[in-house]
Amino acid sequence: RECYSEDTAYPLEDSVLLNYNRxxxxxxxxxxxxxxEGADRGTVEVCTPLMGTxxxxxxxxxxxxxVSLLKSFNVVIGNFIxxxxxxx
Length: 88
Fold this sequence. Notes:
mainly alpha; two-stranded antiparallel ribbon; 3 helices
C-alpha cells in the first residue's frame, strides 16, 4: 500500500495498479529479500503487482481467483467424466 499515493482507492483497478512508486517498491523489495535470505528462504520471488482487481477478503486478485476457479472446475469435470466412463 505504501507504494501507491494516499488518495488511491481500494480495491485497486487495473488502470491504477501500474501507477506505483517504483523506487519505493525496489527499496521494499530489497529489504524483503534480505529478510527472506536471512531466514534461508531466498528462493521466494518478490515481483511487481499482478494484474486484476485485488480482493482483500480473500487476499487474491480477480485474475488469480479466476485461475483458481478454472482449475477447480477442470478437476470436477475430469472426475465427472471418469465416473461416467467407469459406469459404461
